[in-house]
Amino acid sequence: MRKTVALSLLVLACGSVQADTTVDVSRIYGKIKFVDSFPDYKVKVVDSFPDLKVKKVDSFPDSAGKWKTVDSFPDYKIQIVDSCPDFKIQYADSFPGPN
Description:
Blueprint: H1 2-14, E1 30-34, E2 41-45, E3 52-56, E4 66-69, E5 76-80, E6 87-91, E7 97-98
Parallel strand pairs: 1-4, 1-5, 2-5, 2-6, 3-4, 3-6
Antiparallel strand pairs: 3-7
């Protein structure tokens, strides 16, 4: 009974329960557009224990964790959220990539 109630609360809080919720963050790099709706991924910015360390770059976003912010023709659309993220990021000046 308690598991059912807890699962129901999770569904209400985060929208839905998916079978596989893991994201291969090592493949999230390139041209990124920050959006308020219809994202490819929902992301929470944290100060510690991230899934991915992100370095903002102006050119050559060609490896894991290197993001170039664009307004058109993005590789991924990202929405910054406070709860129920697909994965967590931390902005870094060096050594971007998965943790």
